[in-house]
Amino acid sequence: MARRFAEGFEAIRHEFSDVFTEMFGGGEADLRLTDPDNLLETGIEIIAQPPGKKPQHLNLLSGGERALTAIALLFAVLRIKPVPFCVLDEVDAALDEANLTRLTRFLREFSKKTQFIIITHRKQTMEGADVMYGITMEESGVSKLVSVKLEDYEQKTASVAAGE
Amino acid sequence: MARRFAEGFEAIRHEFSDVFTEMFGGGEADLRLTDPDNLLETGIEIIAQPPGKKPQHLNLLSGGERALTAIALLFAVLRIKPVPFCVLDEVDAALDEANLTRLTRFLREFSKKTQFIIITHRKQTMEGADVMYGITMEESGVSKLVSVKLEDYEQKTASVAAGE
Amino acid sequence: MHLKRLEMIGFKSFADRTELGFVPGITAVVGPNGSGKSNVTDGIRWVLGEQSAKSLRGSKMEDVIFNGSESRKPVGYCEVSLTLDNTDQHLKLDYSEVRITRRVYRSGEGQYFINNQPCRLKDITELFMDTGIGKEAYSMIGQGRIDDILSGKSEDRRAIFEEVA
Amino acid sequence: MHLKRLEMIGFKSFADRTELGFVPGITAVVGPNGSGKSNVTDGIRWVLGEQSAKSLRGSKMEDVIFNGSESRKPVGYCEVSLTLDNTDQHLKLDYSEVRITRRVYRSGEGQYFINNQPCRLKDITELFMDTGIGKEAYSMIGQGRIDDILSGKSEDRRAIFEEVA
Ligand SMILES: Nc1ncnc2c1ncn2[C@@H]1O[C@H](COP(=O)(O)OP(=O)(O)OP(=O)(O)O)[C@@H](O)[C@H]1O
Ligand SMILES: Nc1ncnc2c1ncn2[C@@H]1O[C@H](COP(=O)(O)OP(=O)(O)OP(=O)(O)O)[C@@H](O)[C@H]1O
Ligand SMILES: [Mg+2]
Ligand SMILES: [Mg+2]
User: What are A58-73's pLDDT values in tens digits?
Assistant: First the structure.
């Protein structure tokens, strides 16, 4: 039991270091056990060092850096023990354009083994999808599904923005 | 002391109802004292009913609806007791295009009395600003201020997205 | 294994019967604030056996039943079905297609079905145990929840690692 | 009354002297993830007398001093100055322009100035007391914090209402 935890931990730790560096386009990350002699109760410490920066406390990282670090950890876990499908609700909210591009590339890669259902407001994420559904509330308070193409969605949101 | 609280509460309550309906383009909202007989300790309950929907527990509201409700409360307070300047860090992250348009219109209105410093990733918010500063890290780990025009910013982020 | 489709009726803001078909790759769900996108996620969690009203943003389990709007009356029950392609036998069931159904009435009475056969909630949760399916922070990340894994105590993170071990 | 400019040196990622000039209307601050935008907000909070390291995302007050990068060594102190237009005498000081300065050394020793006159931290916090300036959820909303006012207990919300009363 403890040994399986140790093996699982080492595997994820190795992947996390790789995925982090790819997602950030540089930098380093690591996972450490807070209590290596007590595998049944030890916590796991996350060390993240974005490119060009010194390793520092997670709390000092920016909102977008934290989101990307958390996503990198999730993807590291998925590489070790893939799950058939993954539902992500607006995990891209805090990311800038460059990080969003790297994320969509990762999703494309992972989607060969894992099915993704992604709720998003971000255009780049929509461009990376195979299929897109729109949810609207034409009738007050009642959700309705509409099929939507990216060009129509862009046009519609632009006209909403302009027309008010 | 209790009377001043009661007056302040009534004033904010009145404004909150107005601002909410304007921000959401409809709907209703209210504030209620949890313990009206104990003004020194009473809590404040928030009732929010987006357009077309029934009043329901705040927790059932969507991420964007919650963000807009919180912003409406903030603006209601600013109407009663204006503050000289207000710093908002990515409060627009969860908003869709239509809500973002209404928010920027409100900011424009309020900015006559209150100075705003707004950190944002959203193009519409940038379009609503009088002046825009860019922060970059050309040298690793060191922040640098650059003046930036909206067209350059758009071009730059588009090329970052395309060029990777 | 992958999801084929989700069917909902009376679930939260989905008063009318709605069917979403999924593709093996990436499905994006988009729309205005408050339109019902996160409710789709809640629907998936709920049909997989979620028992905490709080995880579904409600205060009681009855909160998942469409409770009316300006234009509609509340309804008396809700039902969600999730159909999975099980050709690779990832789920320990001798079916190539598995359809999970959950229904609840305002009385609180709940009904559960696997391929239209009545079963207990326990049968559904045990079916997905150890697959990682439906687990927050592993196969599902809720809105605003991406930061949780970083902001929690280092001991709280064990859950994902133990899931893999 | 409004802010005229913010000057920072050695504060968090602003290793070099940086000056931001503000306009009376709306100033937008943009840039990539991790570039230092929220650090600007932290700078404003800090110079106004913030005493909680946690509110500045640090674990100790020393965390606000630039601690080096791949290309630079750490520095020994940091200093932030905020200049305000006080023509309307909103602040109870007989100056039409007020410049608040805060400096801290790695030793923890702190220095404070109003219009370049040394003063105590107390003088700064009292200057802004009851103006609402610098108050979280009232004149400052931190990143990811917009939801706090809704998710807190109904008693916790009193703070803003009492500020106004
Ligand atoms: N039982 C219910 N009956 C009717 N409406 C409900 C019920 N439960 C939730 N809702 C409504 O569903 C809406 C929330 O939907 P949801 O959270 O899915 O929005 P969303 O599309 O994710 O929006 P956002 O982009 O802001 O996150 C709310 O307006 C809420 O009032
Ligand atoms: N004392 C310090 N010395 C050096 N760098 C620091 C210090 N404190 C924080 N930083 C760095 O500043 C960066 C965070 O900056 P900030 O939070 O302002 O980013 P941001 O521009 O708001 O990004 P986002 O768009 O993701 O929110 C982090 O990478 C952090 O490592
Ligand atoms: Mg949502
Ligand atoms: Mg930030």
Answer: 999 999 999 999 999 9
DSSP B154: H
Ligand 1 centroid to Cα of residue B62, in Å, is 5
Sheet of B131-136, strand order: B144-147, B131-136, D26-30, B115-119, B85-89, D140-141
Smallest CA-to-CA distance from D143 within A117, B119, A98, B49 is with B119
**d(CA A130, nearest CA chain C) in Å:** 5
DSSP-derived letter for residue C32 is S
Q: Strand locations in B64-137, DSSP E?
A: 85-89, 115-119, 131-136
Predicted confidence (pLDDT) per residue in D112-156, tens digit: 999 999 999 999 999 998 888 888 878 999 999 999 889 888 877
Q: How far apart are CA B76 and CA B89, in angstroms?
A: 19
C-alpha distance from residue B94 to each of B114, C89, C141 (Å): 23, 39, 16
Nearest Cα of chain A lies from the Cα of D52 at a distance, in angstroms, of: 14
> Strands of A115-119's sheet, edge to edge?
A144-147, A131-136, C26-30, A115-119, A85-89, C140-141
B27 touches chain C (CB under 8 A): no
Helices (H), D29-74: 37-47
- Between strands D26-30 and B131-136, the pairing is parallel
The partner residues of C103 in beta bridges, in order of sequence, read C79, C111
